Amino acid sequence: MNPSARGPEPLATRREFFRRGLSAGAAIAATGGIGAWLLDRHPPGDFGRTRSLDLRRDFSVRSAGPAMAIARGRDRPGMLRRALAAMGGIGRFIATGDRVMLKVNAAFATPALLGATTHPELLAELVRLCRAAGAASVVVTDNPINAPESCFELTGIGAAARSAGADLFIPGPGAFRAGTLPSGRLIRDWPVLYEPFAGVTKLIGVAPVKSHHRAGASMTMKNWYGLLGGRRNQFHQDIDGIIVELAMLVKPTLVVLDGTDSMMTNGPTGGSLADLKATSTLVVATDAVAADAFGATLLGRTFRDLPYLVRAGESGLGTTDFESLHPARVPAPAS
Amino acid sequence: MRITTARRIAQVFFFVLFAWLCFVAAVGTRMWQWRGWPIRWFLELDPLVALGTVLSTRSLYPALSWALATIVLTILLGRVFCGWVCPLGSIHHFASWLAQRSVPLKRRIEANQYHPAQAIKYCLLAGMLAAAALPVGRMMLASLQTGLLDPIPLVNRSFNLAVLSVTDLAAGRWSGPGRLYSGAGLIGAIFIAVVLLNVAVPRFYCRFICPLGALLGVIGRSAPWGIGGQRTKCTECGVCDLNCAGACSPMGPIRASECLMCMNCLDDCPKGGQIAYGPRPASAGEIASPGISRRDFVISVAAGLAVAPLARLGGATAGDWPAGMIRPPGAVAEEEFLARCVKCSECVRVCPTNVLQPAGFSWGWEALWTPALNNRIGTSGCQANCIACGHACPTGAIRPLTLDEKLGRGGFEAAGPIRIGLAFVDRGRCLPWAMERPCIVCEETCPVSPKAIHLDEVELTTREGKAIHLQRPVVDPARCVGCGVCEHECPMSGLRAIRVTADNETRDPGHAVLLRFDIRPALKGRDS
Amino acid sequence: MQHSKARSPGLWERAIGACALAVLAAVLAGVCIQQARFDPAVMVAAVAPQAAPAPAVPGLLDQWPAGLAPMGGAETFAPATLSDKIDGKADLYLSAGFVSLRDQRVKLSGGQGSWTEMFVYDMGLPANAFSVFSSQRRPGAADAGIADYSYEADNELCLVHGRYYVELVCSDPSVSARRAAEALARAYVGATAVAEHANIGAEEALFPPEGLVAGSVSLVPSDVFGFDRLKNVFVARYRVGGNEVTLFAAKRGGPGEAAKEAAELRGFFVADCGGTETPAPPAPPGAAIIDLGGSFEAVFAMGPYLAGVHQAADRDTALAWLAVLDRRIGGGKP
After folding, report:
1. Which of B215, B344, C7, C263 could serve as B272's disulfide partner, Cβ 3.0–4.6 Å?
2. In this structure, are strands A250-251 and A57-58 parallel, antiparallel, or unpaired?
3. Rounded to 5, what percent of chain A is helix, strand, coil?
4. What pTM was estimated for this model as a whole?
5. Can you give the residue range of the structural domain that contains B44?
6. So what's the architecture of A52-330 in CATH?
7. ipTM for this model
8. CB–CB contact C16 B6 (8 Å)
9. CA distance B405 to A285
10. Which of residues 24 through 63 in chain A touch B, CB cutoff 8 A?
11. Is the CB of C6 less than 8 angstroms away from the CB of B272?
């Protein structure tokens, strides 16, 4: 049995009762309010409704107009400087305070000399030029196929970025958001790289010239594949479609197409120096379609041999007639 | 009429209603079938289901608004739900009465003394709510495990899968062989064990284990009205404890959060009126707060917070997702599913083909007793024209689909039909592929139109030198919805020669096999 | 369980008990009301077997002539269901290559509430359409001058338009009804394009014009003269001097085929019909005349043509018509 205990005096009881009544009323009101606030009037939606973001981005500099430069030589940093100078200088594209993203090709963990990835010297020079033009920050990124850390390191891109003063962003699972291209069939509710774009005002794509078994060639337009997350291998079932949709998703400020050593066969991974041919050319352009159309010639083909390029041209995403941009042709310096 | 009589009537009423609603949970229009009977009502009234899902999904599923009524009732009157409504409570009450009938009075009074272990249920509640409260969003780590011990889902599950299976057979309700439920043995055994605990201590579950009781105890501890002792003529004889259901020391100071409002003490007091129901606090005083120490509370919360992260370490919701676990059509993506499913087994009960089964431990313990399809059990796979499971689910873990959305028509053509998996022909076991014998049962029974299985024609010569013409099934992943009818009908009844796995299920784009454009018809009229 | 007798329930206790019971009653009422409002899952399951309703058959015409409006929708029938509509007559169509029937009733506005039922039989081929047209042609029906072939009788207008055989049956033989039928027929023909028109001119030319009963040239699609292996033979009735006889002719793939069929038909008459062969006539070569007891049959093959005389009254009649046919087919045709 319980030991007897004395309770509170009766005088306090009525006051206590009223207090309890009030607090009960308040609790009921709070419960009802919270319930109404949390009420999910649209329980988990049907799968037909797209709930993902429209992640289209346009970084093109309209005031600069279409421009293209084709530089010859073997010295990547030099060719880059000369090509940009022929286009009016990087200052036409990068302004003080800009936050620049450089989208490189770091898809594979292979050494730079095999030509499957962006060359670190080229990247380092581009970072320096951007910073010299007044960029507040430069971030270098890609979503590699192989393990990200080893890709950025073995290709030399990581070291080059750091030495030139750029930030390196290695994507993790949280860096992507479900994105939809409103007029697309393929990029619907698909993880697209999102986090490093925060605050970015200019985007430059840097890619080598490579042949590619499925797409025909991997150049500046195929470079945007690295913005996709998830199990993106599926898109190889419609590689031309996905390249075109990626071009609709992202419009860069500039693209740099490195044709110093073009991978003629066995692309996109290559693996042998014998796959490379010294085409000694570097292209800088505002129009990725035009850059790729020119790049096709380095592979010994025309743009008509690349279905994705034909489709992109027909969709109005750029012009396959690169001559119409009156590209400045910069010869190799005599020495 | 005595209040205890009213309470007993209420207990019987709600128990019978509950059992009836379980019994009628079968798709059909007759009086003993679903019709419009509100089969989810008890689950919707349960505040722990509501609070758990509110914490894990940051939203209140509309049907669960009924729980607000229970909460309001408890705020005003205390744990009347436990004493008057809860069907499991009524079972315990009855079992305790049976068990205690032959026990001498002194022992019975001792059995109803408050025991400090009654604080355990508050620890369980705190731990479960902590597990459910982890942040949602990209790192969705909320794990709703309240369904394991919450009495309404527990008794619902036990009745649906174990208890009523016996009466189903007896009543011959299902034509043909009886329904099967995997793991029903364990569920039934747990139920029996829980009920048998009342032999040890009356209403053992309600006092020591029940997290809903704990929640209602917390909510109702400051109710303006309730049981209380008067101090006018009390001789502290202790007879009020004789039939006290909650072991709440009604003589005083009463433990308000333990009182189950059974009102037995009112009747038992020999002096008459020393225990009264009225405005609180009564003159004998009360102990308002649940008897859980701060230290125990913190430990419980910490343990609960660790649940989901530890459970997810195995990758069951990431790369190592179980391909053999086929969720019902309309199920939401797995992380959200685990945040919504209270393991009530209502969907398993209504499934007309008996293909939905409660999962065991093979897909991770978080998935225990959540629904998944087993195409070897039941009368066929998932019927094309059936949307029962989603409409039986009280929390929206399975969405209540319309038939148009399920079949991908009437406005849902662009999205296509809901797919729950993909069938794979095992060419090493299939009769025409491996054994030179004709069979096209899977192609014949494929219910989609046009069929998702087509036949390759081949001529070959058997080892007896006979030239035969064989048709060999080939699955088209662009059309297969994973319904499992083919797997069910495959004559290779041991390990089926065509088996469905959860690849390509609509609810998780990460499990897709094909580009979606290949499955949906082309979107019309859009330019780049 | 013992309760103290020292306490009897007070007013408040009884009131609270009563309230509680009232709540229970309300719950029961609510549940009973709710059970009659079927859950969507139950509704879907209850109607599911029908799945999608049968798609409505579009009306026979998109635009109806003035004064005519459809009564009800159009119905469609397949070979399996044709007999649901036309009962025993279905055999005629089914043996002639029937594909489908669409039919609809059309009302005349004003008038005495008369209507026309329009049957459109898709027979697959113009020859099949002609065959059912011709085999049902009413004696004394006048050519209506519509479509490929047509005739009209008291309350009926029938025509062949390509592979379609169309019957318009009026509810009464009034002039207005017949005019309406004609308007419908013309509207139908105008609105329906056909790949190939029915044309039996070539076969018609096989038959000598003298004595031909007008409009009696018809195509028997199968089971000609009761012989199940004989199909697609043109027959025509002749009346000369009160005597009636039937001539038949058909073009086959080549001389071999025609000769083979002629031999088979001879064999049929002799073996199956119990006929006796009579001495062969002088012309045409290879011809045979069989005496069936009550009538005479003559069969011959000439080039790719199979022809003969059916149910001649006597041998001389048979011989005479044989000669006519011989001249007609052998002389005028390559």
Report:
1. C7
2. parallel
3. 40, 20, 40
4. 0.61
5. 3-287
6. 3-Layer(aba) Sandwich (3.40)
7. 0.88
8. yes
9. 47
10. 24, 27-28, 31-32, 35, 38-41, 43-44, 46-48
11. yes
